[in-house]
Amino acid sequence: MRAIILAAGRGSRLQQTTDRQLPKCLLTFGGHSLLERHLQRLEAAGVQEIVLVAGFRHELIEAELARLGRRSRVEIVLNPRYELGSMLTVHCAAQQLQRGGDVLLMDADVLYHQRIMAALAAGRAPVNRLLIDREFEAGEEPVKVCVVAGVPIELRKQLEPGLACDTIGESIGFFRFDEQAARRLAAIVADHVAGSRAHLPHEEAVRDLLRERSHSFEVCDVTGAPWIEIDFPEDVTRAADEVLPRLEAQP
After folding, report:
1. pLDDT tens digits for 8-56?
2. Calpha distance 61→212 (Å, rounded)
């Protein structure tokens, strides 16, 4: 099993000062960067092959890996056009996406409990899986997953009015693909990039894969497990004041 961590973006919505601009995976909570926490959780889940797609200030990420003693154990792929968005970032890792075996595709800007990683990586390969949290704040920002009879039918921030489903939850931003689905996702991403749609979020390619129904997906409900995606300054505050204490309180 291989993990591909998407960490190329600038994180402009965080509104960091010019002299303090960091890749979001280097934000620190409880004395540990998000990147360090990712690596710890992947290792605890038995994931040995880790690919990190970097871009903005990638030298700082490489320095953090060196500080952690993991520089030689993490394969770094660079997206020099990181300003275009995450679709192109995934495309930069097309070779790693198609290398064989199950693939975990993960956003780097998430603070989360080990139970979420366990849910993603559990079980024998091959399997396709996405994670949802049913307790989320309504609005345009969360990427929503709609499920009918256990099958995910939609994955988007904005849903069509009147869309009927059994369950709706927020996507954690973590996906698992078997070898065939990973190869198909790489092809879909390549089509988006070739069609001048590299600026779109990579979830649009995952959505296309889901809606093709060519590969079956499991939906794993992790409601109750502490986590937060960090996009805005208020997310940093909430991560430190609310989510981190819950992480430290739960085994």
Report:
1. 998 777 766 555 789 999 999 999 999 999 999 999 999 989 999 999 9
2. 36
Number of separate helices (H) and strands (E) present in the chain:
9, 13
The model's pTM is 0.95
State both tokens at 99. Answer: 């290398």
The CA-atom distances, in angstroms, between 24 and each of 41, 77, 143, 169 are 18, 17, 19, 24
Residues 6+ apart with CB under 8 A from 123: none
- Of residues 68, 69, 32, 47, the one with CA closest to residue 2: 47
127 exposed, middle or buried (CB, 10 Å; 0-12, 13-18, 19+)? middle
Contact 4, 79 (CB under 8 A): no
Asked if residue 83 has pLDDT above 60, the reply is yes
Using CB atoms within 10 A of its CB, is residue 42 exposed (0-12), middle (13-18) or buried (19+)? buried
Q: Is the pLDDT of residue 221 over 80?
A: yes
Listed residue (124, 109, 146) closest to 230, CA to CA: 109
Q: How far is CA 250 from CA 69, 174, 193, 246, in A?
A: 27, 21, 42, 6
